[in-house]
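Milestone 3.1: sequence recovery, worked example.
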C-alpha cells in the first residue's frame, strides 16, 4: 500500500498492521512522508485511536528508528524519569543529578515544550552554551563520568519522535494517549534503561486533565514498557496548579538551582521530586523501601552532592562553570518585570496551571509554529500556591516580559488566573497514586 493508502486506513477507523506501522515510521524518519501527510496521519490517529497492539508496534518502530543504547560495564543501574508534561515542571533538572548522586546512571533524552507545557530542552537551552545535541559517544562519556547527561532526540536516538513531536506540538494532536505512549517510551527504550519512573500528570494543566484518562495513560505506559521488558513505575501527580513557583525557561532553571541549594523545602515540587526519585531508587535496587530511599535522597541534597553533579554536567555540556554559584550572571533576564498584587486578603483558591502555561507560551516562552524561536527569559515567577494565605497588597506573581505591552496584557490575564477567597480551599493531593509493572512479578520474571 502507498503512504496515502495507509493514512486512509487509519482515517476510516481501520487497524494498521505491524509492518504498515513500521513503514510509516520509516517514512517519517527518512522524510518520505511529507509534513502535510504527517499532520494528516497524526490527526487520523488522534480521532480514531490505536489499539494496544498498534500502540506497542508504534512504540517499538519509533524506538528502532535509531540506535538503541547498551550500557555494559557500569557499577550502577541505568534509570530515568519522564513526565507527561506540565507547567512549572522542572523535575528533570533536579532529579537527574539527585539520582546520579545516589549511584544511578541517567542518560536522559528530553523533549521541547509541547502545547502549553514546558520542555526540559528549552529550559536547558536558556543556559548560555549548553549543548543538548551531543554526539552519542560524548553523551555516553558524560553519563559514565558524571552519572547523567541531558540531550534531545538527535538523529541517533528515536529520530522519528523528533519529527512527530514537533508536528504534534503545532497540530493540536498532543493529548492523544497512543501518541504520548509511543513518544515517551520510544525515547526511553532507546536509552537502554534498567528502569523507568513516569510522572503522569493529572488536573487542569495536564495533557490529560481527567483523572481517569491520566490513570489509563499511566497503565498503558506501564503495560507497553513491561511488554518491551522495561520495569516502569508510574506516579500520578497533581497538575491543577503549576508545580514550581516559576514557569518559563530561564526562570525554571533558577528555581532548579534554588532547589538543589536546599531552598525549596516543604514545597509541592519537593514532594513530587522525592516521590519519583524514591520509586527510581527502588526499581534500581539502590534502596529497599521508600523510607530508606528518602533518607538517601535527603543526604544527596543536604551534602551538596546533587548540586555538584548538576554543576559538573552543565560545564561538561558547554555551559558556564559558575552557573550554580551565580545564576543571575549567566541566565537571561527579561527587560520588563511587573508584579501582580492581591486586591484583597484571603486564601489562594486556585492558580490555573493551564491558563498560566498558555500565558507563558503567549509571552514567547513556547511555540505556535515549529520554527518559532523561544524567548528564554520570559515567564512568571514568585507564584503563590493554592491554599496560601495572602494579605492585601502582597505579591501574587511577577511577570517577566519582552516589552511593556506584553507585560500589561499578561498582567490583566494573570490576575484572573489566581483566585482569592475567604475559606481555605479543598486541595487535591499532590501524589494521587502509583502504578507499578513490577508488582505481582517474581524476581525470576525480571
Ligand atoms: N513527553 C514526551 O516525550 N512526549 C509526549 O507526548 C508527552 C510528554
Amino acid at each position: 500500500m502507498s503512504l496515502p493508502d495507509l493514512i486512509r486506513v487509519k482515517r476510516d477507523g481501520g487497524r494498521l498492521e505491524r509492518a504498515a506501522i513500521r513503514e510509516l515510521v520509516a517514512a517519517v524518519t527518512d522524510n518520505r512522508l511529507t509534513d502535510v501527510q504527517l499532520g494528516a496521519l497524526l490527526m487520523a490517529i488522534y480521532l480514531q485511536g490505536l489499539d494496544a497492539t498498534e500502540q506497542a508496534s508504534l512504540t517499538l518502530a519509533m524506538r528502532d528508528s535509531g540506535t538503541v543504547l547498551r550500557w555494559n560495564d557500569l557499577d550502577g543501574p541505568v534509570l530515568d524519569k519522564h513526565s507527561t508534561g506540565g507547567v512549572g515542571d522542572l523535575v528533570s533538572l533536579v532529579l537527574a543529578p539527585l539520582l546520579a548522586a545516589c549511584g544511578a546512571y541517567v542518560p536522559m533524552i528530553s523533549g521541547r515544550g509541547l502545547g502549553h507545557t514546558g520542555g526540559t530542552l528549552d529550559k536547558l537551552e536558556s543556559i548560555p552554551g549548553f549543548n543538548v545535541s551531543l554526539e552519542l559517544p560524548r553523551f555516553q562519556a558524560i553519563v559514565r563520568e558524571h552519572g547523567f547527561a541531558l540531550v534531545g532526540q538527535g538523529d541517533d536516538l528515536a529520530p522519528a519522535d523528533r519529527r512527530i513531536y514537533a508536528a504534534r506540538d503545532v497540530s493540536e494532536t498532543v493529548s492523544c494517549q497512543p501518541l504520548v505512549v509511543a513518544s515517551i517510551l520510544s525515547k526511553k527504550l532507546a536509552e537502554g534503561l534498567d528502569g523507568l519512573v513516569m510522572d503522569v500528570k493529572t488536573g487542569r494543566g495536564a495533557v490529560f486533565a481527567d483523572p481517569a484518562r491520566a490513570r489509563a495513560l499511566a497503565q498503558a505506559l506501564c503495560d507497553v514498557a513491561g511488554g518491551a521488558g522495561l520495569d516502569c513505575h508510574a506516579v500520578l501527580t497533581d497538575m491543577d496548579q503549576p508545580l514550581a513557583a516559576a514557569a518559563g525557561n530561564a526562570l525554571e532553571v533558577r528555581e532548579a538551582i534554588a532547589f538543589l541549594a536546599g531552598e525549596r523545602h516543604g514545597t509541592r515540587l519537593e514532594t513530587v521530586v522525592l516521590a519519583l526519585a524514591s520509586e527510581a531508587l527502588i526499581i534500581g535496587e539502590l534502596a529497599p523501601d521508600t523510607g530508606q530511599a528518602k533518607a538517601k535522597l535527603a543526604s544527596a541534597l543536604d551534602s551538596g552532592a546533587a548540586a555538584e553533579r548538576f554543576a559538573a554536567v552543565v560545564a561538561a555540556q558547554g555551559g558556564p562553570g559558575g552557573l550554580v554559584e551565580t545564576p543571575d550572571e549567566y541566565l537571561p533576564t527579561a527587560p520588563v518585570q511587573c508584579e501582580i498584587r492581591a486586591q484583597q486578603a484571603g486564601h489562594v483558591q486556585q492558580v490555573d496551571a493551564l491558563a498560566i502555561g498558555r500565558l507563558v507560551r503567549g509571552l514567547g516562552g513556547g511555540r505556535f509554529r515549529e520554527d518559532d524561536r523561544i524567548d528564554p527569559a520570559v515567564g512568571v515567577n514568585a507564584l503563590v500556591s493554592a491554599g496560601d494565605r495572602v494579605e492585601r497588597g502582597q505579591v501574587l506573581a511577577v511577570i517577566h516580559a519582552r516589552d511593556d505591552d506584553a507585560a500589561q496584557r499578561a498582567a490583566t490575564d494573570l490576575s484572573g488566573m489566581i483566585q482569592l477567597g475567604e475559606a481555605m480551599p479543598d486541595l487535591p493531593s499532590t501524589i494521587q497514586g502509583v502504578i507499578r509493572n513490577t508488582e505481582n512479578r517474581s524476581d525470576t520474571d525480571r
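Residues 84-85, 111, 114, 180, 183-184 surround uracil (CB under 6 Å). The two ends are 39 Å apart (CA to CA).
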